[in-house]
Amino acid sequence: MTATTNGKEMAQIAALAADAKGGDDLVALDVSEPLPLVDVFLLVTGRNERNVAAIADEVEEKLLEAGHKRLRREGRQESRWVLLDFGDLVVHVFHEEERVYYGLERLWKDCPVVPLEIPTPATAD
């Protein structure tokens, strides 16, 4: 079993939104094999609590604008690890310390990576 097209498209929307707010180290994992109710985990790192909250808010806004329904949101008040559950996609926005401590990449290391297309900023000559 592999992630659905819908899950991959949602991950791309979320990744672009996270990138627009300064999200770092974006990784999308196809977790459809071990978790049949979820297709993709998107992991994002924010620099501080304010940045984590801004990233989570932007991701949520863009996915809602695209017509996707949020099922659950956790951690927004503390903004150290915000989880956004959109069914096929679960977005984890971490503060740097929480990302290292919980190490979701290690837990899901056997899951394939879903490619994301993040445009690189143009550099001034």
TrEMBL record:
GO terms for biological process: cytosolic ribosome assembly; negative regulation of ribosome biogenesis; negative regulation of translation. InterPro entries: Iojap/RsfS/C7orf30, NT_sf. It comes from the Bacteria. GO terms for cellular component: cytoplasm. It is found in: Cytoplasm. It holds the Pfam family RsfS. GO terms for molecular function: ribosomal large subunit binding. Keywords: Cytoplasm, Repressor, Translation regulation. The keyword Iron-sulfur does not apply. The keyword Repressor applies. Its main location: cytoplasm. Functions as a ribosomal silencing factor. Interacts with ribosomal protein uL14 (rplN), blocking formation of intersubunit bridge B8. Prevents association of the 30S and 50S ribosomal subunits and the formation of functional ribosomes, thus repressing translation. Interacts with ribosomal protein uL14 (rplN). Belongs to the Iojap/RsfS family. This is Ribosomal silencing factor RsfS.
